[in-house]
Write a structure and sequence with these properties.
This protein is mostly helical and 133 residues long. Helix content is 59%, strand content 11%. The chain has four helices and four strands. The strands form two sheets. The protein has a two-stranded antiparallel ribbon. Helix 3 crosses helix 4. The chain is elongated.
Length: 133
Amino acid sequence: MAKSFEVREDVADKHNAWMQDRIARSVWSKCHSFYRAKSEDGSAGKVHAMFPGSLLHFWWVCRLRWTDYVAVGAEKLERKLWAQKLRNWGGVLLLILVWAATAWWGVDSVMETGRMWVGRARDLASFRSIIPS
């Protein structure tokens, strides 16, 4: 598994820019309170307030998108995810091939070919069980 997950810098910068733009158009930018940090020159600076939106919007913004993160020490996990994707797409490809074969050659012909291959696989498995390793 991964040792840790880090938010990509470009994603964090984009989110912070969006937050400050949204806050600048709200009442939080107009008031002078402890939500507003002072800048180095003493003037009112960045607003550090609650989320500037509804609870539903907060939920939508905070949903997990794995593309926004960099997994540290997750090479094994990435290989496993790719293998899983290949297996999933392999199943879809197999279904498409079977569908195309049945449409082209007919159901009976494809079923007979499938039975033949299953029989050969069983024969090979029983043959391997006889041979000592």
